[in-house]
Amino acid sequence: MSSTSGVYLTRPARDTLLSLADAALQRVAQSWSLLVDSVVSADSPEIALRERYDIQSSFTQPCLHAFAEAEGAVVGASAFLLRSIDAVTLAGLMVRSSPEEIRRKRSLVALSELEIDAAREALNQLCGAYARGLREM
Fold it and tell me: How far apart are CA 74 and CA 49, in angstroms?
C-alpha cells in the first residue's frame, strides 16, 4: 500500500488506476502522433501518491510538469512529467525542426522561447487528452 497524508492506496485500487492511466496515456500517444505527424509511443505509467509540493524533490533530472484534473470514471488530479531532453525533442517536432537541429539542441538541452511555448502546448494537449481518455471510460 502507498500512503501520503493518511490516504492509502491498496493494491487493487493501484492496479485499477494503473490500468485506467495506461489506457488514457495511449490516447495521449495517439493525439501527440497526430500533433507532430510522427509515431509517438507511451511507456506504461507509474502510479504513486505524492503531495503536489513533494513532486519536484522526487526527481533528479530537470523536468517540465503539468497537472490535469479529471472528473468522470476517475475524479482527481494527475501530474505529468516530461524530461527536459524529451521536451526539446517534442518541441522540435512541433515546430518542424530538422532531425539534425533536434539532435543538436538535445546535446545542449536548449529551448528557444518558441520551443518552450511548443512544449507548454504539448503538455496542455497531454492534459486534455488524458482527461478526455479518463472521462470516456
Answer: 15
pLDDT tens track, the chain, 137 positions? 444 556 677 888 888 878 877 877 787 788 778 776 778 787 777 777 777 667 667 777 777 777 767 666 666 667 777 778 888 888 888 788 888 998 888 888 877 888 888 878 877 777 777 777 666 66
Torsion-angle region of 120 (φ positive above 0: left; ψ -120 to 50: alpha; else: beta): alpha
* pTM value surpassing 0.85: no
Sign of CA dihedral 79, 80, 82, 87: negative
DSSP the chain: -EEETTEEE-HHHHHHHHHHHHHHHHHHHHHHHHHHTS----PPP------GGGTGGG-SS-EEEEEEEE-SSS-EEEEEEEEHHHHHHHHHHHTT--HHHHHHHHHHT---HHHHHHHHHHHHHHHHHHHHHHHT-
